[in-house]
What we know:
It is a single chain. It contains 2 helices and no strands. The radius of gyration is 30 Å and the shape is rod-shaped. It has a domain at 1-34. By secondary structure, the chain is mainly α.
Amino acid sequence: MTELEKELTELNKKQAHEIELLKEQIQMLTKRLFGTSSEKSSKVGPGQLTIFDENSPFFKKQRQLMNKPMKKK
């Protein structure tokens, strides 16, 4: 094996190792970005409204307005 072939073989090994590391990094970042989140919704404090609470005064008022008959012109 010539000196050039040895250098190229060593370079090839280094690049293959770097490619594997980059694949692992991509996999980890993709999982972090698109994977399941460990964030949990917390309880809402007293007097604080949530946008998902259908029993909140806001949603009750919206339902009342939607069910209210329209005035005729």
